[in-house]
Amino acid sequence: MIRVVLADDQSVVRAGFRVFLELAGDIEVVGEAVDGPGAVRLARELAPDVVCMDVRMPGGNGLAATREIVAGPGPAPAILVVTTFDLDEYVFGALEAGAGGFVLKDTEPDDLVHAVRRLAAGHGLVDHAVTRRVIAEFARRAPAPDEPAPDPDTPLTPRETEIVQLLARGLSNAEIAAELVVETSTVKSHLGRAMAKIGARDRVQTVVWAYRSGVAAAR
Q: Does pTM surpass 0.90?
């Protein structure tokens, strides 16, 4: 079973999500929080696989809670930001805080279930309506002045670097394989090793790292 914590200040939203997720059969909602601090507490007490996190909540917002959960001791659950807002500041803030996925509250129930499953399996996900804009914005932004350089003790190989750069352009594994004329399994293997080296939990965080570290150049 995939263990999920819901964090949203609206009880009707939590109730709806609980129904949608538990009807899937392989997902169990193990806790509910009404604010950011509550989400942090439940994430540490219950050790869920995924936290569905609202962005705007009284008493502590979801972005701050996401940062605290990701930075906390021990393995962190995947954070799926679920919000009514698709403004860039929320999308980028969520990803930079360490969220592995971002979907809108008006997403279809099946898509919400799919997102939870993907994150539980270690795959990042961003709502299709904002995916390309997110990548374009990260490509446009220069690395922050205080952004640490890539760790010289864990360098990517030339092939790993090439694959991460293509991933940062928005290509799927199959598209990367076609671009490099290799098998999809080879792409997965190289990408997995690259993610392990940079400490990225999923593809979304790998893209964030690529642009923030300068491995993927702003265009």
A: no
Q: Which of 30-34, 156-160, 197-201 has the lowest mean pLDDT?
A: 197-201
Q: Which fold has domain 2-129?
A: Rossmann fold (3.40.50)
Alpha-carbon torsion, ordered 116, 121, 123, 126, to 10 deg:
0
Question: Helices 88-97 and 203-213, interaxial angle, to 10°?
Answer: 90
Range 146-213 has CATH code 1.10.10.10: yes
pLDDT band at 46 (very low <50, low <70, confident <90, very high): very high
| Paired tokens of 81 | 């930001």
pLDDT for res 167: 87
